[in-house]
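Blinded run. Sample ID left blank on purpose so nobody reads anything into the name before looking at the predicted structure. Input follows.
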Amino acid sequence: MVVPEIIKVFSNLWWLGIIISIIISILIVQLSIRIPPDRRKLLMIFLGAFLLSLELVRHYHLYDLGLWSVSASLPIHLCGIARILAGIILIKPNKIGFQFLALIGSPGALHALLTPQLNHGRTDFMIFEYYASHTGIILTPIIFAVALGYRIQDKSWMDAFILLQFLLVFVGLSNYVLDANYMYLAERPLVKNPMIVGDWPWYILGFEFLGFIHIYIFFKLYKFFKPLPY
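Blinded prediction complete.
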């Protein structure tokens, strides 16, 4: 059994991951608003294929190390679902997918970057994949909002919260069937995160309450987005 590994907050690796993620995100956004639409489309397809390829390579990497399992390696954590969705909508843009990533995927990925937990242990690839995929989740809706002019719809924050409830039920049932802990619904994660209050099942209520607040905050933030000049 692999023991999850925590990347300590404010450690050298933590800072390196955060700084590189920010720099690359800024460069990609700046590039996406300065190139013609046809090249922007190629850039988005490349980024989408990259995110989807990362997911495939992750499965092969875990299998090669003998670490792959149905109970721990399926992409049904929130960020696993979000990174696959990000890859898909970068290739084939979709407004519903954009709103899911902006309001649900981005808050989850942001907390994952700030308090990293490598569930399959620490290898060079898993560190790279962790930061690249979570950065991609946050970066994707920003590209859609800034470069493509996508806008968050009114009341979408409530739609996102309701959709999240269906997702929690689906993942919760999957955990029961697979004896798993996807989305940390069966057992609290190891990281020290202010969103995690109390033991099971009380911290899930905290997830719900703080999740609703995060969705609404990101809804308000995306309302301020304006397309940058080309």
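Unblinding after everyone has recorded impressions. DSSP finds seven helices and two strands in the chain.
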